[in-house]
Amino acid sequence: MKNKVLKGIHRILFLLGLAISIAVLATVLVYHEGVSAILTEYEQSFKKDQKDSAMAAYGNSLSEIDEVRLLVLVETNETGSYEEFKAPYTSQKLFIKSSAVLANEEAQQIASLWRKLSFGHGGSGCFEPHHVLQFRYQQKLVCESVVCFLCGNLTLPSFPSPVLVGFHTGDDEGTLVALKSMIEKAGR
After folding, report:
1. What is the sign of the dihedral through the CA atoms of 113, 119, 124 and 128?
2. Could you tell me where the beta strands, DSSP code E, fall in 35-127?
3. Phi, psi of 51, deg, nearest 5
4. How many domains is the chain partitioned into structurally?
5. Is 119 exposed, middle or buried (0-12, 13-18, 19+ CB in 10 A)?
6. Fewest CB within 10 angstroms: 7, 113, 180, 188, which?
7. Are 132 and 85 spatial neighbours (Cβ–Cβ below 8 Å)?
8. CB within 8 A of 82, min separation 6: which ones?
9. Is the pTM value of this prediction over 0.90?
10. Do strands 163-168 and 153-156 pair parallel, antiparallel, or not at all (unpaired)?
11. What is the pLDDT of residues 18-77, one digit of tens each?
């Protein structure tokens, strides 16, 4: 008798689970377009907020730094001894050709120019980065930015992954030119 009752309960639970699954599937199919539109809107809003937050934290408000580590990237490993660098937003294989550590006045000059720049949502262009700026404070990484001066796009730290933004030219184009010049000079 007890086994029949248990079998009956199992059948009822199985059928109830099946009915709920069918109901959920039917609901998703009926409301798919609406749900998809809401998720797309949420994703776009999330990405915009993510970029805005990164630009606010690592642009004009870049915290105190005492060192800038500069990496110069190339597409080919000419000597076979270059270390590979995986840059976000590009499938290019990149290698670290050279690096320089800038401290004291040089680091402060680069940070000062960086803080004067304007950043925007960017994202279009070639994004063939040739420089990485690692802003550091007390030997800890504050901000790493992979930069392409050709299209004016760069990455900024964000969670769960870096965001791609762009330099706004215009009023601060002289600042951007000065920053690029300092970086290229230091990277030689």
Report:
1. positive
2. 67-74, 83-85, 94-103, 118-120
3. -65, -45
4. 1
5. buried
6. 188
7. yes
8. 74, 95, 96, 97
9. no
10. antiparallel
11. 889 898 888 777 777 777 777 788 888 888 999 999 999 999 899 999 999 999 999 998
